[in-house]
């Protein structure tokens, strides 16, 4: 046995390191499945926020939290008219990269498809919803 082949056998033994890597990776994957974090931006705000969508049960809870976070007010959402006459309109980017109005789809579908949220000026949101 040459010195190089002997050294090759020694390196990596005992296999504790690979076990630790696999164990850490497993814990990381488990913790990632617990939350659904998305970035939230608002037109005119100099900062972004990150929120966990699984904390909220319905749209009104999410909207109240966003209003408190960014200090703005959104009018009531109506399926027929969207966020009519509102200065800011909450929108989200879905898995396909399309921008949609928050509230247009059922809550569970929204949580599973939302990649990020953007609170945009109402004037820029024209064409996203029925009455916007």
UniProtKB/TrEMBL annotation:
<comment type="subunit">
    <text>Homodimers and heterodimers.</text>
</comment>
<keyword id="KW-0927">Auxin signaling pathway</keyword>
<keyword id="KW-0678">Repressor</keyword>
<feature type="domain" description="PB1">
    <location>
        <begin position="35"/>
        <end position="122"/>
    </location>
</feature>
<protein>
    <recommendedName>
        <fullName>Auxin-responsive protein</fullName>
    </recommendedName>
</protein>
<comment type="similarity">
    <text>Belongs to the Aux/IAA family.</text>
</comment>
<dbReference type="GO" id="GO:0005634">
    <property type="term" value="C:nucleus"/>
</dbReference>
<dbReference type="GO" id="GO:0006355">
    <property type="term" value="P:regulation of DNA-templated transcription"/>
</dbReference>
<keyword id="KW-0804">Transcription</keyword>
<keyword id="KW-0805">Transcription regulation</keyword>
<comment type="function">
    <text>Aux/IAA proteins are short-lived transcriptional factors that function as repressors of early auxin response genes at low auxin concentrations.</text>
</comment>
<dbReference type="InterPro" id="IPR033389">
    <property type="entry name" value="AUX/IAA_dom"/>
</dbReference>
<dbReference type="Pfam" id="PF02309">
    <property type="entry name" value="AUX_IAA"/>
</dbReference>
<dbReference type="InterPro" id="IPR053793">
    <property type="entry name" value="PB1-like"/>
</dbReference>
<dbReference type="InterPro" id="IPR003311">
    <property type="entry name" value="AUX_IAA"/>
</dbReference>
<dbReference type="GO" id="GO:0009734">
    <property type="term" value="P:auxin-activated signaling pathway"/>
</dbReference>
<keyword id="KW-0539">Nucleus</keyword>
């Amino acid at each position: 046995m040459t010195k190089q082949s002997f050294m090759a056998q020694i390196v990596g033994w005992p296999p504790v390191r690979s076990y630790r890597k696999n164990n850490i990776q497993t814990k990381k994957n488990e913790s990632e499945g617990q939350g659904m974090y998305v970035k939230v931006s608002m037109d005119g705000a100099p900062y972004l926020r990150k929120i966990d969508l699984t904390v909220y049960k319905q749209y009104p809870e999410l909207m109240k939290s966003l209003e408190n976070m960014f200090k703005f007010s959104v009018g009531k959402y109506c399926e027929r008219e969207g966020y009519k006459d509102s200065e800011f309109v909450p929108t989200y980017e879905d898995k396909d990269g399309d921008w949609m109005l928050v509230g247009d789809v059922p809550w569970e579908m929204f949580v599973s498809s939302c990649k990020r949220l953007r609170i945009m000026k109402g004037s820029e949101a024209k064409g996203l919803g029925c009455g916007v």
